[in-house]
Amino acid sequence: MILINLLPEERRPVERTPLPRFLTYVAGVLVACLQISVLLSYHMSKIPDAKQSIETAKKAREEQKKIADEVDAIDKEIQRLGNIRKTLGDLESDRVCWGRILDRLCDSVPDNLWLVSLSIQRQGGGESLGAAEVRRYTIKMTGMALGDTDAEARRNVTDFIRNLTKNFKARDAASIVLGSPPGSPPKQDYDPVLGVRAVEPYLHFITKREVMIPEIKGKPSHKKDAMEFATDMTLETIPYSEKAQLEHKTASPKS
Description:
The protein has 4 helices and 8 strands. By secondary structure, it is of the alpha+beta class. The chain folds into 2 domains: about 80 residues; about 140 residues, STM4215-like, CATH 3.30.2000. The strands form 2 sheets. Strands 1, 4, 5, 6, 7 and 8 form a 6-stranded antiparallel sheet that branches. Helix 2 runs antiparallel to helix 3. The longest helix has about 80 residues. It is rod-shaped, with a radius of gyration of 49 Å. The relative contact order is 0.12.
């Protein structure tokens, strides 16, 4: 059945939106406004802040990469300089003044004694110290000594050994002896003129034998008793670092 409202327009009841539906509309509008405000805040504040943080992080990363590259370059330079230092130490350890050594050998030979053979041998298995390794060389010598008596000939050999010990000790005023740790054998004197440290010569044998003296200045040739001997002496270099330490210690008293 159709209902007809016959009341005049002004007396008819006003149609209103039901309260639940109205509240639903209001809630929807509030949610929409909230979403719009969140989106606006992200676009106006959060996103620019995030972009700024990203840019700052990129710049910091570039700075760190630059610093890392500089550190790598410094490490490579340190390694290169270390290799150069080791090479210089090896060259310094290999530098031996053989001319001066032979001069001192000649100065050590007394009258009525001569060397029959002389050889210089490099010893293997050098001891590593500092930037370089110690080089050891053995000078092997054989010779003859004459004298009016056996005792005089033996004395000439003894003088030769004594002269070697004297001439290959450090004669430079700037040379010093490095202190050795407790319990270790003391080091020999280092001679900065020769660039080596000498070990005491060792006499292997001395024997009596007969030699033929050739004719000299009208004097007929004749046989004479002589002393044959063999001796050796070890020379060792020292690393560049130890030489620098010696120079520092010798320079300290002057300062």
